[in-house]
């Protein structure tokens, strides 16, 4: 019996608690928002302005490429399109490579100089058929096991294609190190586009 009274007592408390809770009826209840019923403002949801002004770029249409004109050229497929390749034109008339030039004239030396000392040498020469050479050398580490010659210079000649071939080099304890160049001359041929179809 005591248990039944306790259960009824608990149910009664729950009913009073639920019935005593005010429902949101849409009416103004002054004590709900503080003791005096006044509105209390907060910053929640406040608008924050971020300035982002419009920047005008003055770019009026000026007709572009002019009025429209129809292109009457027919479609050209890859099969009928013109194709080209790079070819070297033959060299101009090089007198040094004509038949009989060396037999009839020989090769004339235009200039030649040389200096030979105990620990160095220098030489240079040039021939009429455009062969030139120059070398400077010194003796390094004399009277030791590492004794050797260090030299630097170049040689060049005019090839049968009209180009000048030049080799600049250094030779020392690190070996022979050449740098080769192929230079255009007034005799050399030129690269041109040749149609192949």
UniProtKB/TrEMBL annotation:
This is Larval cuticle protein LCP-30. It comes from Papilio xuthus (Asian swallowtail butterfly). InterPro entries: CHIT_BIND_RR_consensus, Cuticle_Struct_Prot, Insect_cuticle. One of its GO terms (molecular function) is structural constituent of chitin-based larval cuticle. The lineage of its organism: Eukaryota, Metazoa, Ecdysozoa, Arthropoda, Hexapoda. Keywords: Cuticle, Signal. GO terms for cellular component: chitin-based extracellular matrix. Residues 1-20 form the signal peptide. It holds the Pfam family Chitin_bind_4.
